[in-house]
Amino acid sequence: MSARKLPIAVLISGTGRSLKNLIDKINAGELDADIRVVIASTSRAKGLQYAEKARIPIEIIERTGFNSADDFSKAVFDRCSEAGVDYVIMAGYLQLLPIPESFNNKVVNIHPSLIPSFCGKGFYGHRVHEAALDYGVKVSGCTVHFVNNKYDNGPVILQKTVPVLDTDTAETLNDRVFYEAECVAYPEVIQLLAEGRVSVQGRRVTVNRG
Ligand code: GRF
């Protein structure tokens, strides 16, 4: 692992399981990242408790406080710039956020399916897994990708698969995707970013594992 800790912001809206996983990995010395700020889209985000416990600065920036999506986005990214972060990590962030040019390929998201399946507007939470089960796919998983200005559309960095079992419900599939795929893939990508091993050309992302 590299000595330099990658400065990041983490954006949340809900339970913050992904945030907790990243904090745990950092505390275990398995992820060279420094969460400089956690920004929540609502004060009701339960995940704020994990930031508080880890003494990470918290900012609540709600869309309703702004006249336009661009003004809202400016407030979020100004706070990220102020915190001196290199990357912005979306972790269960449910607010559409226009990405300014200066943060192109600097904003990362994780989605609980193999993009381009079961993604896009309206596909979040259990809906993703219900759609995968209704379709009858035999594998699912997660996708870590850069964020652009369309839902779940930016360049793919890493995908990790899990089997779909005949007995699965949306809940059991959600748990398998989260614990077996997401909890591994997200820290892995952030560590690769910390080590400067990720490059992007158009839609194609190359990971140099040396
Ligand atoms: C995960 O399923 C992730 O793929 C999606 O949001 C969920 C995590 O939300 N982007 P949270 O961390 O439990 O709030």
Q: What ligands does this structure carry?
A: 5-O-phosphono-beta-D-ribofuranosylamine
Spatial gap, N to C terminus: 13 Å
Spatial arrangement of strands, main beta sheet = 3-2-1-4-5-6-7
The stretches of 5 or more residues where confidence is low (pLDDT under 50) are none
What letter string, H or E per element, gives the SSE order? EHEHEHEEHEEHEE
User: What is the domain total for the residues?
Assistant: 2
What is the assigned CATH homologous superfamily of the largest domain? Formyl transferase, N-terminal domain
Radius of gyration (CA) equals 16 Å
In helices, the fraction of residues equals 25-40%
Number of helices, counting only DSSP H or I runs of 4 residues or more: 5
Chain-averaged pLDDT: 97
Identify the overall geometry.
globular
CATH topology assignment of the largest domain:
Rossmann fold
- Major beta sheet summary: 7 strands, mixed
Beta-strand fraction estimate: 15-25%
CATH architecture of the largest domain: 3-Layer(aba) Sandwich
